[in-house]
Design brief:
Elements: H1 2-14, H2 20-28, H3 40-43, H4 46-67, H5 79-95, H6 100-109, H7 113-134
């Protein structure tokens, strides 16, 4: 709920869309000189996007140390699979012109049809992957 409220306020008060893949690309605009990262939409917005990303990180830290009970969650997934999965998610976000937060929260909230179809694709892929993992096929 707080994520939805946060991106809604960001849009209502500033007209800014708070998707995380844009935050990632705008952060790279500080160091990468490739034309993609030097687009005005990344360079001109990178200051507020870094503050936005810092808020996400600090929110996780506050949750962990002030609100969460018990030990940190653990995973049995090997590191190499986490890295491959991260790469595939990043590639998909770039290919889909946005990530789940951008399309699922911001795009659906502003009633954009491309985001609707992107979210359907994300969900179908997630259902398929979860079932393959449950059946031991992946």
């Amino acid at each position: 709920m707080s994520i939805g409220a946060g991106v809604a306020l960001l849009y209502v008060f500033n007209g800014w869309v708070g998707g995380m893949s844009s935050v990632f690309s705008s952060s790279w605009s500080f160091v990468a000189k490739k034309a993609f990262f030097q687009q005005a939409r990344f360079v001109n917005t990178r200051q507020w996007r870094l503050v936005y990303a810092l808020g996400v990180v600090l929110g996780a830290v506050v949750w962990r140390f002030a609100l969460a009970d018990g030990p940190l969650p653990q995973t049995d997934v090997p590191t190499w699979q986490l890295l491959v999965g991260g790469f595939l998610v990043g590639y998909g976000a770039r290919l889909g012109n946005g990530c789940t937060s951008g399309h699922g929260i911001c795009g659906l909230g502003s009633l954009q049809w491309p985001s609707f179809f992107a979210v359907l694709t994300f969900m179908a892929t997630a259902f398929m992957t979860a079932n393959l993992m449950a059946w031991g096929m992946a």
